[in-house]
Structure formats: structure tokens, C-alpha cells
Amino acid sequence: MRLDKRLFDLVCALGLSVLLAPLILWVIALILIRDGRPVLYLSERMKTPTEGFNLWKFRTMTVVTQDSGVSGGDKAARITETGAFLRKYRLDELPQLWNILRGDIGFVGPRPPLRRYVELFPEVYAEVLKSRPGITGLATLAFHRTEERLLAQTKTPAETEEVYCRRCVPRKARLDLIYARDHNLCRDFRLMCATVFRGIDLHNRR
User: Fold this and answer.
1) Would you say 129 and 52 are in contact if contact means Cβ atoms under 8 Å apart?
2) Contact of 59 with 31, CB cutoff 8 Å
3) Measured at the alpha carbon of residue 99, what is the angle toward residues 97 and 101, in degrees to the nearest 5?
4) Positions in the chain short of pLDDT 50
5) What is the pLDDT, as a whole number, of residue 56?
6) What integer pLDDT is reported at residue 201 of this predicted model?
């Protein structure tokens, strides 16, 4: 990771941690009161093709003993009322500020994949993970809603896996590689703003 990008991430993460501290505490209290413990959900993700880390999120689902793969329609019944609200406004991702401070991810980059998909598509992720993963990015903004729609229609874990591998992984990878070829701090800041406001035209890229 370039030094300027790392400094940018650190400054923004520290500033937002202070600014959003009341909101973070409110979300913690909300989950504890309405859903109980645990408050956080830790999921192993990959920041390089060989190096994993624990990605932090606020818990949005009921707890089960075994869980794997991406979230699709087969897991919809597990999403709590609180979790649906947090997901709608992406508040479940606030704890990832800690991942940024640790250097696991940045603000902008490809979403960090689960280990199973890196092992299933080693050539794809060997290229995608040359960029440091991020909370948001071009693929997140351009494809996230389509991905949610596609996966929401699945009824079983096997169907979710098939749709994700066939229709989501290749399309997201293409967008991640477009980002990798032509990115800088100005474009990163623009993508961050677009994530918040969803109103910025992203198609005026050169």
C-alpha cells in the first residue's frame, strides 16, 4: 500500500472514530437491549491470497453453530429486525474502522473475500488482491444492489453458492481490476462520498 493512501486511511479512520463514537455506542446498546450478546460478528477474510484476518461487524443475524458462505435468501430468516436496520444504512460495518487502524483493510478497495472463494478462484484473486481490500469500492457501488437482488432469490445454501460463484465473483472481479488500473486519492475520496450519498455520478471516469 502506498504511504499516502495509508496516511489518508489512518487520518480518516481516527477522525471518524471520534466523530462517530456516540453512534457506535448507541448501536452497541441497541443490539444488547434488543438482541443480546454477542454484539460483534467476526468473519475470517483475506487481505492477500495467503493472509487472512478477522473482519469486524456488528451482529445482524441470530447465532448458529455453523455458518459458511455468503448471505443469500437461505439466510434471510436469520436477519434480526435490528440487523435489517443496520444493514440498510451499513451501520453494521462501523467496527471495520478498527480493521483500518490495524492495517487489515483501507477505506477503498475490493471487498475482502472469504477464504473459500480465494481457494476456489486462485487466479482471479491473485490479481484482485494485489490491491488492499476496502470497506467500499467501485464494485461495491456498482454491483452491490444487483448482488443483493440475485442472492435474495436463492433458497438453499447450494443455490446461493452457485449464483455467487457464477454471477457475482466474475463481475465484481472485473470492476475491482478496473479500479486497480486507474485509482488515486481523489478517486478514492469520490468513491467514499458516493458510498455515503449515493448521488455522485460515477460514470464520468476517464
Assistant:
1) no
2) yes
3) 70
4) 199-206
5) 98
6) 42
